[in-house]
Amino acid sequence: MTAISFTLNGRPVSTDIEPHRNLVELLQRFDLFGSRESCGQGLCGCCTVLVDDKAVSGCLYFAVWVDGKRVATVEHLDADGRLSPVQQAFIDTGAFQCGFCTPGFILMAHQLLKEHPNPSDDDIRHYLSGNLCRCGAYPEIIEAVKLAAKATSKAAA
Ligand code: FES
Ligand code: FES
């Protein structure tokens, strides 16, 4: 077991974990299930987690690597009790079917809008190209990101 301390969704936490466990498994020990392991190979984006504000694949990221870092999951986006603009937009546009891929898409869309507040369709496609939706909800996902961009810029005006 290895002792690690890190910031998880804004609060400091410490735990012991086996060195071979990945970040998805670590988060499950804190009852956080939004990051899901699917392909296990860094190909689908279902396991996306933000570490020090950078998106990583939780399936390929060793849990012990978060020692001393800031970790944020999809559960943190509505930390003030309200859905984030991206979360709300995914609901309003029906941008999911089974929902398995949705937390990963939402986290990446959140990052996209931080970097490009007014993205084109191509920007969205390019930025989200590492996330796969097996239900094929891509048109609605693009609509959701554009809706969230509008809502975010309106709120900032
Ligand atoms: S489960 Fe990690 S990228 Fe697919
Ligand atoms: S909504 Fe089912 S995989 Fe995307």
Explain what you see.
This protein folds into two domains: 2-74, Roll (Ubiquitin-like (UB roll)); 85-156, [2Fe-2S]-binding domain (DNA polymerase, domain 1, Orthogonal Bundle). The protein starts with a strand and ends with a helix. The model has no long low-confidence stretch (mean pLDDT 95). Strands 2-1-5-3-4 form a five-stranded mixed sheet. The chain is of the alpha+beta class. It has five helices and five strands; from the N terminus they run ββαβββαααα. 35% of the residues lie in helices and 16% in strands. α2 crosses α5 (138-156). The protein binds FE2/S2 (inorganic) cluster (2 copies). One FE2/S2 (inorganic) cluster is lined by residues 96-102, 133-135, 137.
Summarize the structure.
The chain is α+β, with helices and mostly antiparallel strands. It has two domains: 2-74, Beta-grasp domain (Ubiquitin-like (UB roll), Roll), CATH 3.10.20.30; 85-156, Orthogonal Bundle (DNA polymerase, domain 1), CATH 1.10.150.120. It has helices spanning 23-28, 85-93, 102-115, 121-127, 138-156, and strands at residues 2-8, 11-17, 48-51, 54-57, 70-72.
The helix/strand series, from N terminus to C terminus, equals EEHEEEHHHH
| Sheet with the most strands, sense and barrel status | 5 strands, mixed
By DSSP, the count of extended strands is: 5
Strand content: 15-25%
Bound molecules: FE2/S2 (inorganic) cluster
**H/I helix tally:** 5
Number of domains: 2
Looking at CATH, the homologous superfamily of the largest domain is: Beta-grasp domain
Spans where pLDDT lies below 50 across 5 or more residues: none
Mean pLDDT across the residues is: 95
CATH architecture of the largest domain: Roll
What is the C-level CATH assignment of the largest domain?
Answer: Alpha Beta
Q: Assign the structural class, choosing from mainly alpha, mainly beta, alpha/beta, alpha+beta, or little secondary structure.
A: alpha+beta
Strand order of the largest sheet: 2-1-5-3-4
Q: Please give the share of residues in helix.
A: 25-40%
- Which overall shape is indicated by the principal axes computed on the Cα atoms? globular
Measured distance between first and last alpha carbons: 50 Å
Radius of gyration: 16 Å
CATH fold-level topology of the largest domain: Ubiquitin-like (UB roll)
